């Protein structure tokens, strides 16, 4: 370990500022891959803790001030910011920009809102600095051993940064889970949607668990075994794997399953909500993600839930007769709903890419989500294949593999949603995904009536199925139709 920033030889290829869970582990990852890493944190305690506990991981340069930090870096300087998203990021960028020089690169690896990244890149570009908004996923373990990295920003910056980032990223089948996503805010946009999908995936897993618990009265340990078994099937994924671990955990104090002593109010830091807001702006029905965000909100509406406990369920149906068949139905419903959630997320990425002119390659994105990130899953290989075969695929649900998978499982999916409804078990993500699928494949939708109503009360006009043009019915007159 080199901790003398004043030595002439002390030059780092990369600097990391913000040494909490993510930053400290990424710094160690860089060091383990042979890079000399300059370390900086607002308060020196985290820097010193890292050096004390993990200084042996490689070459680190300890710095206390931003001036020392910047001076410790090779030119062009590369600084990775891993601080709390929002105002803290702006404060750190400002301080760094004042100390850096044209041509230097600032990378924000936090969970920034993509519109903030667009703004920040423009501001830095005006000062001659390259700004790269990079989504990074993988949590603590991924940051250390190989995350999935989604860098946006100028392509020239990727030429300098790409090899470094690719070397610390997770590797799947010899390919790094890191690629240049596109200009300005594209990296943070896709990371935002990644997190939205993460929300949907977790909600679907939660609904599957709840059904086994309430409809089949299964003990938690048995449900853990089911998830463990599912992880050797087409459902193989990090989230299914850790679901088995969380459900297997027994609380040392009470001897109960840990899940039974955790308060059932899900938190959220904002990326799921941002995804839904963006989907609304782009006009993309990401129903799975939206239901997941709302389900977390409902779970946290503690006072309302307490007051509503006595509300009637009406007459409930009876539990499924055959346990094994129903477990298999749940598995199928989980897979089909998961396909819908990913399909919707990828639709949103296509829409965002078109809106901002980013030209995001969805096949390449599926490739880098196969490892390192929280939503890594076996079936991302299928998604990658689907987009490689047809980069303009209108919906993942139309790719032959997914079309077949959903078709085979549709009866199970319907049984799960109807059984849950009859038993009074909430399954917002399963149900909305099935409705989305039915809506997508429907020949006619009641939107025709919506158009008629809009025309009635607001003269909003409509199109006809049998001729070109825009029409209006004189609803408060003789109800004849006029051309607009
Ligand atoms: N945790 C996770 O699993 C993941 C997190 N992320 C993102 O990565 C980033 C880092 O996350 P995480 O490691 O959890 O840390 P936190 O989000 O908890 O942020 C803590 C770090 O931010 C620094 N900080 C806070 N405010 C300021 C400020 N005003 N000026 C300078 N530094 C400040 C802290 O410094 P100090 O020690 O002095 O308080 C500390 O180093 C975040 O943007 C997060 O959203 C991305 C993927 C996964
Ligand atoms: O970025 C992540 C993983 O990719 C974080 O784990 C994410 O911030 C968790 O979000 P939330 O706290 O809203 O559930």
TrEMBL record:
One of its GO terms (molecular function) is NADP binding. It comes from the Bacteria. SUPFAM superfamilies: 6-phosphogluconate dehydrogenase C-terminal domain-like, NAD(P)-binding Rossmann-fold domains. The active site is at residues 191, 198. Residues 187-476 form the 6-phosphogluconate dehydrogenase C-terminal domain. One of its GO terms (biological process) is D-gluconate metabolic process. Keywords: Gluconate utilization, NADP, Oxidoreductase, Pentose shunt. Pathway: Carbohydrate degradation; pentose phosphate pathway; D-ribulose 5-phosphate from D-glucose 6-phosphate (oxidative stage): step 3/3. NADP(+) binds at residues 18-23, 41-43, 83-85, 111. Signal peptide: none annotated. Its EC number is 1.1.1.44. It catalyses: 6-phospho-D-gluconate + NADP(+) = D-ribulose 5-phosphate + CO2 + NADPH. SMART domains: 6PGD. Catalyzes the oxidative decarboxylation of 6-phosphogluconate to ribulose 5-phosphate and CO(2), with concomitant reduction of NADP to NADPH. Homodimer. Belongs to the 6-phosphogluconate dehydrogenase family. This is 6-phosphogluconate dehydrogenase, decarboxylating.
């Amino acid at each position: 370990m080199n901790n003398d920033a004043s030595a002439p030889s002390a030059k780092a290829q990369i600097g990391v500022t913000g040494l909490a869970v993510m930053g400290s582990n990424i710094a160690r990852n860089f060091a383990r891959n042979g890079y000399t890493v300059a370390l900086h944190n607002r308060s020196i305690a985290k820097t010193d803790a890292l050096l004390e506990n993990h200084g042996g991981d490689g070459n680190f340069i300890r710095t206390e001030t931003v001036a020392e930090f910047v001076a410790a870096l090779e030119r062009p300087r590369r600084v990775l910011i891993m601080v709390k998203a929002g105002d803290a990021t702006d404060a750190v960028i400002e301080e760094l920009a004042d100390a850096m020089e044209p041509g230097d690169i600032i990378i924000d690896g936090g969970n920034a809102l993509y519109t903030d990244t667009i703004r920040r890149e423009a501001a830095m570009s005006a000062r001659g600095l390259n700004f790269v908004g990079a989504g990074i996923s993988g949590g603590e373990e991924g940051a250390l051993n190989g995350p999935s990295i989604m860098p946006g920003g100028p392509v020239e910056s990727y030429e300098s940064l790409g090899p470094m980032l690719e070397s610390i990223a997770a590797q799947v089948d010899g390919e790094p889970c890191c690629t240049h996503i596109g200009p300005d805010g594209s990296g943070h946009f896709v990371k935002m949607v990644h997190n939205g999908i993460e929300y949907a995936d977790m909600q679907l897993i939660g609904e599957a668990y709840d059904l086994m618990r309430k409809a089949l009265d299964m003990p938690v340990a048995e449900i853990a075994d089911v998830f463990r078994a599912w992880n050797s099937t087409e459902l193989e994924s990090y989230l299914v794997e850790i679901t088995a671990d969380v459900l297997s955990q027994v609380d040392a104090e009470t001897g109960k399953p840990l899940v039974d002593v955790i308060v059932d109010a899900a938190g959220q830091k904002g990326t799921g909500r941002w995804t839904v807001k963006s989907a609304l702006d782009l006009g993309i029905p990401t129903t799975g993600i939206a239901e997941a965000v709302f389900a977390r909100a409902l779970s946290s509406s503690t006072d309302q839930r307490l007051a509503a406990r006595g509300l009637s369920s009406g007459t409930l149906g009876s539990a499924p007769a055959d346990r094994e068949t129903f477990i298999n139905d749940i598995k199928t419903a989980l897979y089909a709903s998961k396909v819908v959630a990913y399909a919707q997320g990828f639709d949103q990425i296509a829409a965002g890419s078109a809106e901002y002119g980013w030209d995001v390659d969805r096949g390449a994105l599926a490739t880098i989500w196969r490892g390192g990130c929280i939503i890594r899953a076996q079936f991302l290989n299928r998604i990658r294949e689907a987009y490689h075969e047809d980069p303009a695929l209108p919906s993942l649900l139309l790719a032959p593999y997914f079309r077949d998978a959903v078709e085979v499982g549709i009866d199970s999916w319907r049984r799960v949603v109807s059984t849950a409804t009859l038993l009074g078990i909430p399954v917002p993500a399963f149900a909305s995904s099935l409705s989305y699928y039915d809506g997508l494949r429907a020949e006619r939708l009641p939107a025709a009536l919506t158009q008629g109503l809009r025309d009635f009360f607001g003269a909003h006009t409509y199109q006809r199925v049998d001729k070109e043009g825009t029409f209006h019915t004189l609803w408060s007159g003789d109800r004849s139709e006029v051309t607009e």
